[in-house]
UniProtKB/TrEMBL annotation:
GO biological process terms on file: selenocysteine biosynthetic process
Gene3D superfamilies: PurM-like C-terminal domain, PurM-like, N-terminal domain
UniProt keywords, alphabetically: ATP-binding, Kinase, Nucleotide-binding, Selenium, Transferase
GO cellular component: cytoplasm
InterPro entries per record: PurM-like_C_dom, PurM-like_C_sf, PurM-like_N, PurM-like_N_sf, SPS/SelD
Entry GO MF terms: ATP binding; selenide, water dikinase activity
Chain ranges of the PurM-like C-terminal domain: 96-269
PurM-like N-terminal domain span: 2-84
Protein known as: Selenide, water dikinase
Classification of source organism: unclassified sequences, metagenomes, ecological metagenomes
Length: 278
């Protein structure tokens, strides 16, 4: 990400997501900064921190301190402390047979970020990806709490299927995902076809293959999109079939980046995912 202010915003939104994914409310945050002070002007660092601070304020919290080190490349993140009432705690281990799987942000940020590094990402594609990554998962999490979802996690570095596999493992469940239902960022498919695929995405696919069955005309490219390593991705929810329409309506009302039913929990047993198409 070339814009330091946006870099800070995305990092903060990404860090806050862990609190929202468990139904919690953030309380405060600490900055963690690595910066090459001899190579980059401090104005860049100031913009990164401003982006993080503005996003923290949007979440209703303050950044109360932090730690900085001199490093060869800029890195920025936050340690976020939050709280949640026990009755509101949402884990990733409560998925039940028949639950529908709902995703609240489109996929493809890892592929687009790789294309940005290579200088091949169109500006309009970058703008849409940045817009998505800077959106907090707060409103989506509130919709999940209001409806009463059974399980939830945020989709980040392990990609959609990686985090779904974690949910299935924790819930002793099996799932099916419809590739055609997956929301994808504009440009993600074209850039993946140009091989702008990060190493983390390929490692994610290698990891989930052990528990993955393909059904229909699922290509290697489709699998990479479904395992693309996300930054500040959306929430993946398992919700009862009697509540899914209410959840989608609430997400739509809150204007979340996506409100897509992408599959369902199909059975109990050892964790397994079927990715189907057609």
């Amino acid at each position: 990400m070339d814009d330091p202010y946006q870099f800070g915003q995305i990092a903060a939104a990404n860090a806050l997501s862990d609190i929202y994914a468990m139904g919690g409310t953030p309380l405060f945050a600490l900055n963690i900064v690595a910066f090459p002070r001899q190579e980059l002007p401090l104005d860049i660092l100031a913009e990164i921190l401003r982006g993080g601070m503005d996003k923290a304020h949007e979440a209703g919290i303050h950044i109360v301190g932090g730690h900085t080190i001199d490093d060869s490349e800029p890195k920025y993140g936050l340690v976020v402390t939050g709280e949640v009432a026990e009755e509101n705690l949402i884990r990733n281990n409560g998925a039940k047979v028949g639950d529908r799987l709902v995703l609240t942000k489109p996929l493809g940020t890892g592929i687009i970020a790789t294309a940005i590094k290579r200088g091949v990402a169109p500006e309009v594609v970058v703008a849409r990806a940045v817009e998505t990554m800077t959106i907090l998962n707060r409103d989506a999490a509130q919709a999940a709490l209001d409806v009463g979802v059974h399980a939830m996690t945020d989709v980040t570095g392990f990609g959609l299927l990686g985090h779904l596999l974690e949910m299935c493992t924790a819930s002793s469940a099996q799932a099916a995902v419809d590739f055609a239902a997956l929301p994808l960022l504009p440009g993600a498919v074209d850039l993946a076809e140009q091989d702008a695929v990060p190493g983390g995405t390929r490692r994610n696919l290698d990891y989930v293959r052990k528990a993955l069955t393909l059904e229909g005309e699922v290509s290697e490219l489709d699998q990479l999109l479904a395992t693309d390593a996300q930054t500040s991705g959306g929430l993946l929810m398992a919700v009862g079939p009697d509540k899914v329409h209410d959840l989608i309506a609430r997400l739509t009302e809150k204007d979340t980046p996506a409100a897509a039913v992408i599959g369902e929990i199909t059975g109990e047993g050892p964790a397994h995912i079927t990715l189907r198409k057609g």
